[in-house]
Design goal:
The complex is a heteropentamer, with one copy of chain A (389 residues), one copy of chain B (275 residues), two copies of chain C (357 residues) and one copy of chain D (304 residues). Chain A has 389 residues and is α/β, with parallel strands linked by helices. Helix content of chain A is 52%, strand content 13%. A five-stranded mixed β-sheet of chain A has the order 2-1-3-12-6. In chain A, helix 1 packs antiparallel against helix 16. The two termini of chain A are 40 Å apart. Chain B has two domains: 90 residues, no CATH class; 164 residues, MetI-like (MetI-like fold, Orthogonal Bundle). Chain B contains 13 helices and no strands. Chain C folds into two domains: 232 residues, Rossmann fold (3-Layer(aba) Sandwich), CATH 3.40.50.300; 111 residues, OB fold (Dihydrolipoamide Acetyltransferase, E2P) (Beta Barrel), CATH 2.40.50. Chain C is elongated and about 75 Å long. In chain C, helix 3 packs across helix 4. Chain C has eight helices and 21 strands. In chain C, a hairpin with a 2-residue loop joins strand 1 and strand 2. Chain C is an alpha+beta fold and 357 residues long. In chain D, 68% of the residues lie in helices and 0% in strands. The radius of gyration of chain D is 26 Å and the shape is flat. Chain D starts with a helix and ends in a 5-residue tail after the last helix. Classes of the chains: A alpha/beta (389), B mainly alpha (275), C alpha+beta (357), D mainly alpha (304). Chains in contact: A-B, A-D, B-C, B-D, C-D, C-E, D-E. The structure holds adenosine-5'-triphosphate (ATP) (2 copies) and magnesium ion (2 copies). The site of one magnesium ion (MG) has 3 residues of chain C, from helix 1. Chains C, E: GO terms for molecular function: ABC-type maltose transporter activity; ATP binding; ATP hydrolysis activity. Chains C, E: It comes from Alginatibacterium sediminis. Chains C, E: One of its GO terms (cellular component) is maltose transport complex.
């Protein structure tokens, strides 16, 4: 059967990664992968995906951020239960960290295949920028802050930052892990403890964020990769961005450790969150299609496909039983942290899209409006956490 | 003086087009270093080729050409049906008033102000119940519905300006509702049809949201590829390809505008002037 | 046998009553003209007969058939409009055959009828042209032809000539009259031009505010108007009205007394406020004046030479008074004219009821 | 004589209900659209705005919660303010520019067709394209600012899209560029419909041309302005693509608009009910402004 | 002293010559009517005088001032248009004062002039209304008022009455005439209605194809037309033309010979193809007929009663012939009428040159 798969991976590396899925599917099964790519972020793709499912003409499989996004679809019985595949392939044993599988599980049943791990908690630093400014490349957040005036004097932007909401909200998340500490972070994000959010640990985060805001004031790019480009070219000192950024450094021919430095957890708390992408399978009437869906699910989790896919995508595989020899420096750092178990669940899994949306709104405003004080922002932040569901 | 103002205004309107054309013929390195207004040092048509036949959408790398056929396939029936419905509406509203007809019309005009995002889900559900969801005809229907307010307004105004006596003469001659519509009104309505066609071609050709929400990938219009080319969040932005792609996508409505400019003004004159 | 009869016709536009309990019988072959000022409901009445307006009450019969709710095309009527209402995209032939094709008349029959109509209206060589390429008069002829080919019993005309210039209007008027003589159909003709009405009509219905004021032959209407409105409306230049009192068989106004013995009173009321209506041509100037029972002298205030005759504006006892003299008579402002008035041809109206005395 | 009694067809004296049935059938699509889609969907939306629907519409009523939250959201307030700024400016400027261009073109100039096409062509392009090009031209790194600086004005600053105070005007520039051509054509059509004699009369009266336009011609073009207004206003309320393509609402939330709020809440934040509440507010506003006007404009008017 | 004079006026629209070397002198206070068929250039000429069209050659003087290149508002003219051209959104008062305010005339002066105009035109109680709430005649009056308040030397009228119905037209015609008598301004009046021309004009200029065919008083034009075109154009009902030959002092056609001794020939050509023009009123029916030099008998083909008189269509020697009789005379189709023709009042034209003989 022709199995249509929708996703929003349309850039070069992403498309190449998807192609690995398609190739494996076409070669290893009797079915055919029909690509339904929609560019833009989830905001563009999601209504399309939901409409298709609601309209009774669903696709065979679709990308969705796992976590809470799909809960309602599952409750409505619109998504296929693939527990049998997971049991047969023993996912429980191989998926690492296991939280990835948990977020695909509702009432003990598994509804999605996690395909990769992305982590947000990185800062990328430009060696050239610091050289030009005559200061050493920082090794943690404090040093980074301390070096900022020197950079500015040299006509550089200490912190590169794009305009998109998710970048700003993400950067704040990274800072809160590094500055407020893991316990406080957990209290806020897992327990939704508004008191902690309003408390002194988070006050530090907001103060730091005000500082960061000043450092990023002259960064006028829109897209995240344009911001990354500023780090690559030495116009900016650093950028807080997820692990996907290193793809850009690679394309530019830069070498980790020589041309740039990556610090997980801003060099303070070396932990990474384990977000990532997952595929869901809308329920279909045709048993043939169901069979194909399950075959695809199984295939996506298989070792060979995981390796092929993640190498192209630049993300970490979801299986603990894979060695990635070809991985670069930063990726290896990530793998090590992963192996050590210093992991946190990602915001996607903990907060509803609505809450995240509100946080993004807050962060967008906070980062772009210098008159927005730390106190006000923290108050609002605590309120959102308090009302989170 | 008069011409001076006109020429300055013309420059303002032409500037973006110039930028698009110029950029689409530059190589990427040139774009990075130069400014947007500089003419290309080395003219290249590679971006056009790429936009048309090589740019990737997911794993399909056949550029805009992939959606072109679909766009045409969507465009023709949508334009046809939406104009047919709207013209019949306008005709009925101006010549065959019945109790409440003006109320429906008023609702229709207010409908033009509803942001259509709001209606996505209910329409999905309606189409599902009609069994039209995901098909070409479902999309055609959606385009007809959303084109209806403005088009009906134009047609109504136009047909109101046709002398009532003509309509009476046709009734005395024994022509019925449809007879009068097809044999008398349609042949006289060329200018307003041109206007309607232009508005609809533009709207439908440039539509992205409906095309992608109410159909399946095999029917995705060209704008989906355009969106994919232009909106790829990650990776380097190939501005030259983007511009080439946008120009390619806009070509059909542009040509229609240029060809039918005079008729357009005439039609507007007939359809818009009477409030 | 009457060709068209209308019983208690009511027509309202929303709350406005435009036609009120109107009755009308038109014998077969009659040329009836509906005449009245703008807005009096002439077109509305015609549209009701044609079935183009849904009536609010009453009934309409055409050839003794109740057609009240029939479609216009089923009533056996043909209609000619003021703006011609030709289908601009069809040739003359197409215009003529449109109704027939709708009625599924066989091809050769259509051809025959078009030929006949083209013959009658002398427009054989126009058949292939589009209306845009025709002159006003030719268009009007095509419009008439369109009714002609349908072989209808009743022709309805709604001011068919008012868009034409004076000369053409006069010519086409004669043509329509000829056509009526030739075909003998019933014709109902709406106009607000009294010359048209007078020259064309077998009978004229004068309308006012949705009511028929008088129905009669042109002669009756001209010479025996049913009320002051009709008297005023008919006649060009129009009737002079002098307000005064009837006292002892004399009409008195200002300090003038006109003996009215010769006036054929229809009521016995011999006194009261009345209004004397005198048509300009019943005032004789010069030689003939002396023979008349009442004579006076009037001063020329203004004159309008019109070629064949001249209109003269004067004041009679302070009231404006218009007379008509031969075009050869040379007058100048300020001239004094000796005039005689044919009192026996005058009309006298009660000022309050506006009815003739 | 009394034919109505013995006529064999006296039953046809009743009004057949089938009269004009075709017209009513033909109007069915319109009726269905008006009632089923526009009214139906609006009611559906309003009803769901009182629920806490998230990803999927559900009938789970929570009263006015969504509205309370809506009106305590800064982004929504900013959106409304932006829409007001954009709406008013765009309305005025579109009409002004459209009318000015039309008057220029109406003065029997040469190459009228060429100019007309130049002013009109942007309308053929989608908002996405418009947004993209203007984002680019206004970009300080390689757009106008760079050019002017390259010409020697080192301190020249022109980066409307990056200044929260100005960003909405940056969008305005693009919006007007795209839409004013159509308005111009409509105005031109209106001007062509003005009686030549009026022009002559004003010349005999010695009225200067500019004054004639303002005092005499514009008031005569009421119908044209109404049509233009409907077109512009319906576009303004729905403005979305342009903002997304040009600024994505940024910098910060400086260029957020209500339609984008609705869309983001419904689909990105998966809070349908919040989006519905926002769109209900938009609907209500539109209705408050439009219904009385539409009533006067269309209901009471007779044919001709 | 002449009020308006036009010297060698040329006007081309692109390559089309609409006015060709036109000369015209209009003395002060004259009421000149430009009369001609549609498209002959009347409005064009008027617009040139007003300065609304840039002329291609020649000069225009108003009150002996060369105004050829002045703005319309500086020429001392006021203009009234066929479509009234009132400013619809202004009240009557606004319409009247608009030009004055613009010329910075003091407030009280404006008020005075408006009052005067309102007085003259009897529209005091209309001042606050908008044109939309006025009847056709009232609108026309406002349009005239607009020219009136500007205190101009020359009034220009471009078919000011053609949008009105017949009755109103007749009334307003008289009003304009009165206005002229009262004000004594020069007035130039364009029309294609000959009745208007005849009744209003001091002199009429008959135009055709951009040329003036004849310029003269209504009487001259009616009784001594400069050519066949003018003869045909003037007169309602229009002149009968009978084609024939002039042989031995007799006009011959079919087998009829009419002695033409009494006709005042202006040329010596006593033979050739000619055309005899006879106005309907110069054909006498009944008593008077016997006294006339030429008599014959004609058969009634069709008659048009018009109240005060009746038009009768006959054939004379196979050619269509129209006569006018008193409205009291009863006729029927087929009646034979004894008629006499006033040959001395006829016109005779050379068929080729169309000039009178
Ligand atoms: N569609 C309509 N709705 C409301 N009133 C109407 C309508 N049509 C006509 N009327 C009114 O009905 C009255 C009669 O109109 P009608 O057209 O019959 O007049 P008429 O005698 O034909 O006048 P005219 O000589 O101007 O054609 C008028 O007062 C007019 O205002
Ligand atoms: N703007 C123009 N461009 C070209 N030709 C024109 C223009 N205006 C008038 N004409 C031509 O000039 C000729 C005279 O026109 P004009 O309007 O003066 O006629 P008119 O005598 O006023 O006719 P009417 O009685 O119809 O008003 C006509 O043949 C007309 O076609
Ligand atoms: Mg009428
Ligand atoms: Mg004219």
């Amino acid at each position: 059967v022709d199995l249509e798969v929708t996703h929003w991976w349309t850039s070069g590396g992403e498309a190449a990664a998807v192609a690995e899925f398609a190739k494996a599917f076409d070669e290893n099964t009797s079915h055919k992968w029909v690509d339904g790519a929609i560019a833009g972020s989830g905001g563009t793709a999601r209504p399309i995906i939901i409409s298709r499912i609601l309209g009774g003409k669903p696709m065979g499989a679709t990308q969705l951020n796992h976590g809470r996004q799909a809960e309602e679809l599952i409750e409505e019985g619109l998504l296929l239960d693939i527990t049998d595949v997971a049991m047969a392939d023993g996912w429980k044993d191989v998926v690492n960290p296991s939280s990835l599988l948990d977020s695909c599980t509702l009432d003990g049943k598994i509804y999605c295949v996690p395909v990769n791990i992305h982590s947000w908690e990185w800062i990328w630093l430009s060696h050239q920028a610091y050289e030009d400014a005559g200061v050493a490349v920082p090794s943690n957040w404090e040093e980074f802050v301390a070096a900022a005036p020197a950079l500015e004097k040299a006509g550089k932007i200490p912190l590169a930052m794009g305009q998109q909401a998710w970048q700003r909200s993400g950067a704040f998340g990274v800072m809160s892990i590094a500055i407020a500490g893991i316990d406080a972070w957990k209290a806020v994000n897992i327990d939704k403890d508004a008191a902690v959010a309003a408390g002194p640990e988070y006050k530090k985060v907001f103060d730091a964020a005000v500082n960061a805001r000043a450092m990023a004031a002259n960064s006028k790019v829109q897209d995240w990769n344009q911001a990354t480009n500023m780090v690559i070219t030495g116009q900016a000192g650093g950028q807080i961005m997820g692990d996907w950024a290193q793809g850009e450094f690679q394309v530019a021919g830069q070498v980790a450790g020589e041309d740039y430095t990556c610090l997980p957890g801003l060099g303070a708390n070396e932990v990474i969150s384990t977000g990532g992408d997952a595929f869901y399978f809308p329920k279909q009437d045709d048993p043939e299609v169901t069979k194909a869906q399950k075959e695809l699910a199984s295939l996506m989790m298989s070792q060979a496909v995981q390796v092929a896919f993640n190498l192209k995508k630049g993300s970490l595989p979801v299986r603990g039983d894979i060695e990635l020899d070809t991985a670069n420096d930063c990726m290896k750092k990530g793998l090590k942290i992963l192996a050590d178990g210093n992991v946190l669940p990602s915001g996607d899994m903990l907060l509803s899209a609505d809450t995240q949306g509100q946080l993004e709104d807050l962060m967008v405003e906070f980062w772009s409006d210098t008159s927005y004080s730390a106190e006000d922002a923290q108050k609002r932040y605590a309120a959102i956490i308090g009302s989170a569901d | 003086m008069l011409y001076g103002v006109l020429i300055v205004m013309a420059l303002y309107y032409l500037l973006p087009l110039y930028v698009m054309v110029v950029t689409s013929m530059k190589g990427m390195p040139e774009i990075r270093i130069g400014n947007v207004f500089a003419p290309p040092v080395e003219i290249t048509f590679q971006p056009w080729v790429k936009a048309w036949s090589e740019a990737c959408t997911g794993i399909n790398c056949d550029g805009l050409s992939r959606g072109f056929g679909n766009s045409i396939q969507i465009l023709i029936p949508s334009v046809f049906l939406s104009i047919l419905i709207a013209s019949v509406n306008g005709y009925a509203l101006s010549n065959w008033k019945f109790k409440g007809s003006e109320v429906f019309f008023t609702i229709l005009v207010i409908g033009a102000f509803i942001p259509y995002q709001v209606m996505l889900y209910p329409i999905v559900i309606i189409l599902r119940e009609l069994g039209l969801y995901g098909s070409l005809w479902g999309l055609v229907l959606v385009h007809s519905v959303f084109g209806m307010p403005i088009l009906t307004l134009l047609f109504r105004n136009y047909f109101s300006s046709v002398p009532e006596e003509l309509f009476k003469a046709a009734r005395v001659d024994g022509a019925g509702f449809w007879g009068i519509y097809f044999k008398i009104m349609l042949p006289m309505a060329l200018p307003i049809f041109v206007v309607a066609i232009i508005l609809q071609v533009t709207g439908i050709w440039n539509d992205f949201l409906f095309g992608v929400i109410f159909t399946e990938p095999s029917l995705y219009p060209m704008t989906v590829q355009l969106n994919n080319i232009v909106n790829s969040v990650q990776g380097v932005k190939e501005y030259n390809v983007n511009m080439a792609a946008t120009l390619l996508t806009g070509l059909l409505p542009l040509v229609i505008y240029l060809v039918s400019g005079k008729l357009f003004v005439r039609g507007i004159a007939a359809g818009a002037v009477k409030g | 046998m009457s060709s068209v009869s209308i019983r208690n016709l009511d027509l309202n536009f929303e709350s406005v009553k435009v036609l009120k309990q109107l009755n009308l019988d038109i014998p077969e072959g009659e040329f009836l003209v509906l005449l009245g000022a703008s807005g009096c409901g002439k077109s509305t009445l015609l549209n009701c007969i044609a079935g183009l307006l849904d009536i609010s009450g009453g009934q309409i019969f055409i050839n003794d058939r109740n057609v009240t709710w029939l479609e216009p095309s089923e009533r056996g009527i043909g209609m000619v409009f003021q703006s011609y209402a030709l289908y601009p995209q069809m040739s003359v032939e197409g215009n003529l055959s449109f109704g027939l094709k709708n009625a599924k008349v066989p091809k050769d029959e259509i051809a025959k009828r078009i030929e006949r109509a083209a013959d009658i209206l002398q427009m054989k060589d126009l058949l292939k042209r589009k209306p845009g390429a025709l002159s006003g008069g030719q268009r009007q002829r095509v419009a008439i032809g369109r009714a002609l080919v349908r072989d209808v019993d009743v022709f309805l005309f709604d001011e068919p000539l008012s868009n034409l210039d004076a000369k053409l209007r006069a010519d086409l008027r004669v043509e329509i009259k000829r056509l009526h003589n030739q075909l003998g159909n019933t014709m109902i003709y709406v106009t607000h031009d009294q010359v048209e009405a007078m020259t064309l009509a077998d009978r004229i219905a004068i309308m006012r505010g949705g009511l028929i004021q008088q129905l009669g032959t042109p002669d009756e209407i001209y010479n025996h108007p049913a009320n002051k409105y009709v008297a005023d409306f008919i006649g060009s230049p129009s009737m002079n009205f002098i307000d005064g009192k009837l006292e002892d068989g004399q009409f008195c106004f200002a300090d003038i007394k006109v003996p009215t013995d010769v006036y054929p009173y229809t009521t016995d009321a011999r006194s009261g406020d009345v209004c004397l209506g005198i048509r300009p041509e019943h005032v004789i100037v010069g030689e003939g004046a002396e023979k008349l029972p009442y004579q006076t002298e009037l001063e020329v205030e203004l004159f309008e030479p019109m070629g064949s005759d001249t209109q003269i504006w004067t004041k009679w006892g302070g009231q404006s008074f218009r007379i008509r003299v031969d075009g050869q008579l040379k007058v100048a402002n300020g001239d004094k004219l000796k005039v005689g008035i044919k009192i026996e041809r005058c009309s006298m109206f009660d000022i309050k009821t506006e009815l003739p005395m | 004589m009394d034919r109505s009694k013995n006529s064999p067809e006296s039953e046809s004296a009743r009004r057949p209900w089938l009269k004009n049935i075709n017209a009513k059938i033909a109007a069915l699509p319109m009726i269905i659209t008006a009632l089923g889609i526009f009214v139906g969907c609006s009611i559906w939306t309003i009803v769901h705005s009182f629920t806490n629907s998230r990803l999927l519409p559900k009938m789970d009523f929570v009263g006015l919660d969504q509205y309370e939250r809506l009106w305590s959201t800064r982004r929504w307030l900013v959106s409304i303010e932006n829409l007001a700024i954009y709406g008013i400016c765009s309305l005025i400027l579109s009409l002004l520019i459209g009318f000015t261009l039309a008057t220029l073109l109406d003065r029997k100039i040469r190459f009228e067709g060429v100019f007309r096409s130049i002013f009109l062509y942007p309308f053929a392009l989608s908002f996405i394209v418009t947004g993209l090009v203007w984002q680019w031209i206004l970009n300080p790194e390689f757009g106008v600012q760079k050019i002017v600086r390259a010409m020697g004005f080192e301190n020249f600053v022109f980066d409307p899209l990056y200044d929260p105070q100005l960003a909405i005007y940056g969008i305005l520039i693009a919006g007007i560029w795209q839409g004013s051509g159509l308005i111009m054509v409509i105005m031109l059509a209106g001007l062509r419909g003005i009686d030549e004699d009026i022009w002559k009369a004003t010349r005999v009266d010695g009225i200067p041309t500019w004054k004639t336009y303002i005092v005499v011609i514009i008031p005569m073009m009421r119908g044209v302005f109404v049509t233009a207004l409907v077109l512009i206003a319906s576009g303004i309320v729905k403005v979305y693509d342009l903002v997304v393509a040009q600024t994505s609402g940024g910098p910060g939330i400086a260029t957020e608009v209500p339609a984008k709020y609705v869309y983001d809440k419904m689909f990105a934040a998966q809070n349908l009910a919040q989006g519905f509440a926002a769109s209900t507010m938009m609907l209500v506003t539109v209705a408050i402004i439009l219904v009385p006007w539409a009533y006067l404009e269309f209901k009471g008017k007779k044919r001709g």
